[in-house]
Write a structure and sequence with these properties.
It is built from two helices and five strands; from the N terminus they run ββαββαβ. It has a five-stranded mixed beta sheet, with helices on one face. By secondary structure, the protein is an alpha+beta fold. It is globular. Helix 1 packs antiparallel against helix 2. The longest helix has 24 residues. It has a single domain, classed as Alpha-Beta Plaits. 41% of the residues lie in helices and 27% in strands.
């Protein structure tokens, strides 16, 4: 199962995320559409943060993608990043609604 955890501040802003695991929806050796969908949403988010905000603070490894906004992010850039990150939540929640046995989206207050 894929677990997507969003780190949320008390005011509702998203500080970062950690996506970990594999959907396990396909048979061994077959293409996993759910993993591909989650990857597409994740990498589109990273692309938006990089190109629109100049934020490139992510780490990746096999089956894991994590990112945290820098503490010194300017307020106007922070606002754009929030739109991008909240759109990411919407995309992953839509996948979860359809394939809840393969992905879990949750929030952790930090």
């Amino acid at each position: 199962m894929i677990k997507a955890v969003f780190y949320r501040l008390k005011n509702g802003d998203i500080k970062g995320f950690d996506i970990n695991g594999h959907a396990g929806a396909a048979k061994k050796g077959e293409y996993d559409m759910i993993c591909a969908a989650v990857s597409a949403v994740g990498y589109t988010t990273l692309g938006g943060l990089d190109e629109l905000c100049g934020i490139n603070t992510y780490k990746e490894s096999d089956g894991r993608l994590e990112m945290e906004l820098p503490a010194d992010t300017a307020p106007e850039i922070w606002a754009i990043a929030q739109t991008i990150l909240k759109t990411m939540v919407i995309g992953l929640k839509q996948i979860e609604n359809q394939y809840h046995q393969h992905i879990k989206v949750s929030f952790k207050e930090v």
